[in-house]
């Protein structure tokens, strides 16, 4: 059935060219068979697929393209004990993915952990979700933490969180309610029981008091050893420095290094202290070379300095540990071969035998002390304090005291008589008026002064003496001699007593002695607690004020008449002593304090207290002051307490000192340099506030490490193996030998050339190149770059040729201008003669990096090689390896000061300018 | 629906989970459910924002997707990985109806929209043209690959100039051409033995034997009545070779692929907001040829069970996928992947839909 306008065209041919075929003209049979799809081979067949045969697709969540709710990466974990640390949970879930946060959930009312936490995984949402799913399948109902099997689930939209949270809180509430009821019931029961108990206790109390005291004592003793063993280091009393001496076997050596080190002592400088990348082993070698180190191994862990001898290693370790090297500090760790440990300083301490010895000794000490306290001191003290024997003892003591006193008085009288005799004799011998006046003020001979006091005692006439009276019945001199009232410091108390005692001195001596005794006993009993009290008060700062108050009251109560009397007496005494040498006369001025009172201290500790309380008098004062303060109940044994306190202080101090020592060394160098330099100093005191500014090169020389001018050449070139280069150092040939060698070589070549008879360029020899020494450029202290010798060079040796473009003078001028214009500041034009200049700016050898120096190590010579003038650098003197090569530029003198180039060569004879 | 044995016997004799037997009530309800569980998972906005996309197509293995847009770019996507791979610019010639070559997924064919109407053969790897297929004088309306394994290099095109042309990728010129009075749409049956040509002007559907291409007419039918005022957009054989589906902007037509009798009308589509650019059709049939899925103007995806069509009756959608609030994609073009359990929609952005488990 032909259609209108339907035509057929085929191929490139125009439709008209072909005979038109009627399209769709033929009726054909359907080639398909109904029911049978009749696929051809290939792609179409695969297209008919059951839905179940389709491949599943699951997309990972990505924030850019994914739509829909963000998959949750948060887990809720519950059903674990509330005491469980979040770290434990984190560690348990760590295998499933990176954990961002673990947050324990607390009870909102009581802030007590609920035993529930949220755990969120890190990474993008898809990844976190995946790891969360993994974690759930891996742990839910299987993982147990602290004995209970935990539960966990994915927290989507906070749903699970709310669910679990509410459940747990409600459970807890129920539990609490039950507990509360239970406890109420229990409480009522207990109350009843307690009543009964109290009655029973009251009876038993009096009986058991003594026992309990003892047991307390024991408790204190038992506690002590634990404190002692808490720290090994403190037990060994090793300094920080010594603690870095370790056993060889404990060292973690990089693989293969143990072969090099052998069983020898070595020092390890870890990389974190001294960077192996920026500090070469040569630098380390320089530092430790005087200790006969065998070799230095470099690893990225750090440097390993190996020694043959233990002594060398040890001295090196002692001297160089913590030393500065460039901007680093060399902190060393010293490893000693196990068998040589005993030879080291700390060998005894650190070796197993030594360790155990110290442990044993310490333990023994503790037990000895304990035994002493318990078996000797304890019973004795109890006996002393027993109130039953008190009367007896007092009597005995009184008797003893009296006897003693009588004896003393007798002795003194006898002595004084003798003394007087001698004195009078001596005075008579001396020419009148020659006695030195200053002697009295020096008060060097306190004993001699005391003798006056004694004399007064015996005579009952005079009241003279030192500031500190030894006995109660002696009046202090201050009381007698003072003209003004404010001058008493610590003596008021005594004065007070003395004022009362004075009138009845003679008759009441016995009673006062008794009182003294009582006091002493009291003091003995309360010795410990007193100290504590005193300490407490001092810390508050009460002691000074209270004593001042006392002073005032005492002073105001002093009668004025006795003072006048005393003055009169003084006058009398003076006249009476006119015959006596001035030296032995009583002082008329107010007493000088024997010790400076140091009431203000940095810390009110035991040491200070002991320092302040100089004598019995001070002690009594202290007692008085602290009369009303109570002993702290926490302190069981005072002596132990004080010992411990002091011990702690000491160790603290020691550690502090050590750390200070280590710290101060580091920064000081740099700071000194900066502060010494005026131009580096800042008006505001802070560099940040002053904004940006250029620091001239001249100043940089002062502090930049690679610009630091030191006597030894700076190793700017890192050698791979310093050991090898060191062995080569001896192989310096003299220039003559070298030349001979090269001449021979040249002769060989020319002979070959003749034999070949060709004009080939192959054997063209650059003689200068042959003679060139190994050099390399690196950053220089003088100017940007410099040339350095890689190995030692003998004097007069050729080093390198100054290679560059050979240009005419005219061209050189044009080029120089062009270079300046294009910003090439450094000029590498070298004039050979009037017409020729060698330009190494763009095409040139490394000789152009050689810097100028006013004290040069090399010189530039123009020599003719094959008829051409060439610039060659020769060594002027022996040049060491790694030394910078310099020659004198010999610039023409410039008159215009602006055009002059400052010289930074740093040589002692530096002219200051290049031109 | 599925009654598992209960009681002690279930414990004693564990039953293997069997595939649900189709019941008389709904023969493939489980399959419908499967399709209904699809939801957009990824949205790619690689085309210039708010520029219409005119065609989407998969490669033969369903691994890659190629979309062409009025921003004159081709976008290449990796389907199983859900990633955008590459943008290919065709600024000079424009692009429409980009399809992968049957021989290689790194080569594609597309019709130019500017300057001339040459079909271009492009290497996606180095972005170079391999060949130009000159012949059409007007815009190409459909471009289909051969479904035959033995004629992989063949492809067929129809154009607004009223011609259907056969091409071989190895030669520049067409191998056969069929002139018609109005714009044709073409489709190939899965066995590659019959081509269906729908003349949009006269609304005549013809089946032509591929063996005797320009001349061998098998059958023709006038579709003026069933089509009514709707304009057909796409013609498609189902993979089981049972039906020809005509995608229109109103009710979609389902015809018997042999007798060309209208077997059903797929209703329910809400018209899209009109736009001045063509598209590659919003109706797709699953690879098993049992379920038709079409996008609707209100954002829904309508699902019809093709086994339920009979006697040219209207068929309301068996299922719908309601538009998701959080992922609004307009299904102006819908295409089910031939190998993977996913489908792609496109309007101004490309959306990948996959099955989501709740």
From TrEMBL, chain A:
Gene3D superfamilies: 3.30.70.330, SET domain (2.170.270.10). Residues 217-227, 725-735 have a biased composition (Polar residues). It is an enzyme of class 2 (transferase). Residues 390-422 form a coiled coil. It holds the Pfam family SET_assoc. It comes from the Eukaryota. InterPro entries: COMPASS_Set1_N-SET, Nucleotide-bd_a/b_plait_sf, Post-SET_dom, RBD_domain_sf, Set1-like, Set1_fungi, SET_assoc, SET_dom. It comes from Brettanomyces naardenensis (Yeast). It catalyses: N(6)-methyl-L-lysyl(4)-[histone H3] + S-adenosyl-L-methionine = N(6),N(6)-dimethyl-L-lysyl(4)-[histone H3] + S-adenosyl-L-homocysteine + H(+); L-lysyl(4)-[histone H3] + 3 S-adenosyl-L-methionine = N(6),N(6),N(6)-trimethyl-L-lysyl(4)-[histone H3] + 3 S-adenosyl-L-homocysteine + 3 H(+); N(6),N(6)-dimethyl-L-lysyl(4)-[histone H3] + S-adenosyl-L-methionine = N(6),N(6),N(6)-trimethyl-L-lysyl(4)-[histone H3] + S-adenosyl-L-homocysteine + H(+). Residues 899-915 form the Post-SET domain. Residues 178-201 have a biased composition (Basic and acidic residues). GO terms for molecular function: histone H3K4 trimethyltransferase activity; nucleic acid binding. This is Histone-lysine N-methyltransferase, H3 lysine-4 specific. Its EC number is 2.1.1.354.
UniProtKB/TrEMBL annotation, chain B:
WD repeats lie at residues 53-87, 133-177. Residues 1-31 are annotated as: Disordered. The keyword Flavoprotein does not apply. GO terms for cellular component: Set1C/COMPASS complex. Gene3D superfamilies: YVTN repeat-like/Quinoprotein amine dehydrogenase. One of its GO terms (molecular function) is chromatin binding. It is found in: Nucleus. Keywords: Nucleus, Repeat, WD repeat. Coiled coil: none annotated. One of its GO terms (biological process) is RNA metabolic process. InterPro entries: Swd2/WDR82, WD40/YVTN_repeat-like_dom_sf, WD40_repeat_dom_sf, WD40_rpt. Residues 14-30 have a biased composition (Low complexity). It comes from the Eukaryota. Belongs to the WD repeat SWD2 family. This is DEKNAAC105206. The lineage of its organism: Eukaryota, Fungi, Dikarya, Ascomycota, Saccharomycotina.
């Amino acid at each position: 059935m032909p259609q209108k306008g339907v035509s057929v065209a085929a191929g490139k041919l125009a439709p008209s060219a072909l005979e038109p075929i009627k399209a769709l003209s033929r009726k054909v049979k359907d080639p398909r068979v109904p029911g049978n799809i009749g696929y051809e081979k290939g792609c179409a067949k695969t297209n008919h697929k059951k839905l179940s045969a389709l491949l599943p697709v699951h997309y990972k969540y990505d924030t850019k393209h994914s739509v829909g709710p963000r998959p949750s990466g948060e887990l809720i974990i519950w059903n674990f004990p509330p005491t469980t640390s979040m770290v434990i949970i984190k560690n348990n879930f760590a295998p499933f993915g990176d954990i961002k946060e673990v947050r324990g959930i607390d009870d909102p009312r009581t802030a007590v952990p609920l035993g529930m936490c949220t755990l969120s995984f890190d990474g993008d949402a898809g990844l976190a979700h995946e790891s969360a799913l993994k974690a759930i399948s891996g742990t839910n109902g299987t993982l147990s933490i602290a004995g209970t099997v935990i539960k966990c689930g994915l927290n989507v939209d906070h749903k699970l969180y709310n669910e679990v949270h509410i459940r747990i809180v409600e459970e807890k509430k129920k539990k609490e309610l039950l507990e509360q009821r239970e406890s109420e019931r229990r409480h009522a029961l207990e109350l009843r029981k307690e009543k009964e108990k109290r009655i029973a206790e009251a009876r038993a109390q009096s009986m058991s008091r003594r026992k309990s005291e003892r047991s307390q004592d024991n408790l204190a003793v038992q506690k002590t050893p634990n404190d002692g063993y808490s720290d090994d280091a403190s037990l060994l009393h090793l300094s920080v420095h010594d603690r870095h001496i370790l056993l060889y076997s404990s060292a973690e050596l990089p693989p293969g290094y143990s072969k090099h080190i052998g069983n020898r002592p070595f020092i390890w400088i870890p990389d974190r202290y001294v960077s192996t990348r920026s500090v070469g082993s040569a630098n380390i070698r320089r530092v430790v070379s005087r200790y006969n180190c065998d070799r230095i191994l470099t690893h990225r862990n750090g440097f390993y300095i190996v020694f043959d001898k233990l002594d060398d290693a040890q001295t090196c370790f002692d001297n160089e540990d913590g030393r500065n090297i460039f901007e680093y500090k060399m902190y060393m760790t010293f490893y000693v071969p196990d068998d040589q440990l005993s030879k080291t300083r700390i060998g005894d301490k650190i070796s197993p035998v030594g360790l155990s010895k110290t442990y044993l000794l310490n333990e023994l000490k503790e037990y000895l002390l304990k035994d002493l306290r318990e078996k000797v001191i304890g019973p004795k003290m109890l006996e002393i304090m027993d109130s039953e024997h008190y009367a007896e003892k007092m009597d005995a003591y009184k008797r003893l005291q009296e006897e003693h006193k009588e004896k003393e008085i007798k002795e003194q009288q006898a002595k004084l008589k003798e003394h007087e005799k001698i004195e009078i004799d001596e005075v008579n011998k001396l020419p009148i008026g020659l006695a030195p006046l200053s002697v009295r003020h020096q008060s060097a001979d306190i004993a001699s002064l005391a003798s006056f006091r004694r004399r007064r005692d015996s005579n009952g006439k005079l009241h003279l003496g030192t500031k500190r009276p030894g006995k109660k019945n002696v009046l202090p001199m201050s009381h007698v001699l003072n003209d003004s009232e404010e001058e008493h410091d610590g003596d008021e108390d005594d004065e007070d007593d003395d004022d009362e005692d004075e009138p009845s001195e003679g008759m009441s001596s016995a009673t006062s002695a008794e009182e003294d005794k009582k006091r002493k006993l009291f003091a003995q009993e309360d010795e410990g607690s007193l100290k504590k009290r005193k300490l407490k008060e001092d810390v508050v700062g009460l002691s000074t004020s209270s004593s001042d108050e006392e002073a005032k009251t005492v002073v105001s109560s002093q009668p004025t008449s006795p003072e006048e009397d005393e003055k009169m007496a003084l006058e009398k005494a003076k006249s009476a002593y006119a015959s006596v040498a001035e030296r032995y006369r009583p002082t008329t001025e107010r007493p000088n304090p024997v010790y400076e009172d140091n009431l203000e201290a940095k810390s009110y500790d035991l040491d200070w207290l002991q320092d302040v309380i100089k004598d019995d008098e001070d002690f009594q004062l202290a007692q008085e002051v602290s009369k009303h303060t109570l002993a702290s109940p926490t302190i069981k044994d005072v002596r132990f307490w004080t010992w411990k306190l002091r011990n702690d202080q000491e160790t603290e101090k020691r550690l502090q000192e050590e750390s200070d020592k280590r710290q101060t060394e580091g920064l000081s160098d740099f700071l000194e340099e900066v502060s010494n330099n005026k131009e580096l100093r800042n008006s505001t005191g802070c560099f940040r506030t002053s904004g940006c500014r250029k620091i001239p090169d001249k100043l940089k020389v002062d502090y930049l490490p690679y610009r630091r001018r030191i006597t030894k050449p700076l190793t700017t070139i890192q050698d791979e193996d310093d050991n090898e280069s060191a062995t080569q150092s001896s192989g310096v040939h003299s220039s003559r030998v070298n030349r001979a060698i090269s001449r021979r070589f040249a002769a060989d070549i020319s002979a070959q050339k003749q034999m070949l008879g060709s004009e080939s360029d192959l054997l063209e020899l650059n003689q200068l190149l042959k003679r060139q020494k190994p050099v390399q450029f690196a950053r220089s202290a003088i100017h940007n770059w410099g040339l350095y010798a890689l190995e030692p060079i003998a004097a007069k040796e050729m080093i390198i040729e100054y290679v560059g473009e050979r240009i005419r003078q005219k061209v050189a001028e044009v080029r120089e201008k062009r270079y300046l214009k294009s910003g090439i500041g450094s000029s590498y034009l070298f004039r050979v003669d009037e017409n020729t200049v060698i330009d190494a700016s763009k095409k040139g050898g490394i000789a152009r990096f050689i810097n100028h120096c006013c004290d040069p190590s090399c010189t530039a010579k123009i020599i003719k090689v094959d008829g051409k003038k060439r610039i060659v650098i020769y060594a002027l003197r022996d040049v060491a390896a790694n030394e910078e090569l310099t020659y004198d530029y010999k610039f023409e003198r410039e008159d215009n000061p602006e055009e002059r180039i400052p010289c930074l060569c740093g040589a002692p004879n530096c002219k200051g300018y290049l031109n | 629906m599925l009654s598992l044995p209960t009681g002690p016997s279930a414990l004693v004799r564990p039953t293997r989970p069997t595939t649900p037997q189709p019941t008389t009530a709904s023969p493939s309800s489980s399959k419908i459910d499967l399709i209904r569980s699809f939801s957009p998972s990824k949205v790619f906005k690689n085309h210039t924002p708010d520029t219409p996309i005119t065609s989407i197509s998969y490669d033969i293995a369903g691994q890659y997707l190629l979309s062409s847009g009025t921003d004159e770019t081709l976008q290449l996507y990796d389907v199983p990985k859900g990633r955008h791979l590459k943008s290919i610019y065709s600024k000079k010639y424009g692009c429409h109806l980009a399809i992968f070559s049957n021989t290689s997924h790194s080569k594609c064919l597309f019709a130019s929209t500017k300057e001339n109407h040459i079909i271009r053969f492009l290497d996606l790897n180095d972005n170079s043209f391999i060949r130009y297929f000159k012949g059409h004088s007007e815009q190409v309306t459909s471009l289909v690959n051969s479904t035959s394994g033995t004629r992989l290099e063949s492809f067929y095109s129809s154009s607004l100039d009223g011609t259907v042309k056969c091409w071989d990728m190895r030669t520049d010129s067409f191998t056969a051409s069929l002139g018609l009075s109005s714009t044709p749409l073409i489709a190939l049956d899965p066995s590659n033995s019959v081509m269906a040509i729908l003349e949009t002007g006269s609304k005549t559907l013809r089946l032509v034997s591929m063996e005797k291409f320009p001349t061998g007419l098998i059958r023709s039918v006038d579709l003026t009545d069933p089509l009514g005022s709707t304009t057909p957009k796409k013609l498609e054989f189902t993979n089981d070779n049972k039906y020809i589906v005509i995608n229109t902007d109103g009710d979609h037509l389902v015809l018997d692929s042999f007798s060309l009798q209208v077997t059903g009308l797929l209703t329910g589509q809400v018209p899209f907001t009109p736009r001045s650019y063509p598209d590659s059709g919003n109706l797709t049939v699953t690879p098993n040829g049992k379920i038709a899925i079409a996008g609707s103007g209100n954002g829904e995806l309508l699902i019809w069970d093709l086994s339920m069509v009979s006697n040219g009756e209207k068929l309301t959608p068996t299922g719908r996928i309601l538009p998701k609030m959080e992922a609004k994609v307009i299904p102006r073009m819908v295409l089910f992947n031939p190998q993977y359990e996913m489908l792609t929609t496109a309007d101004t952005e490309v959306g990948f839909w996959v099955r989501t488990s709740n």
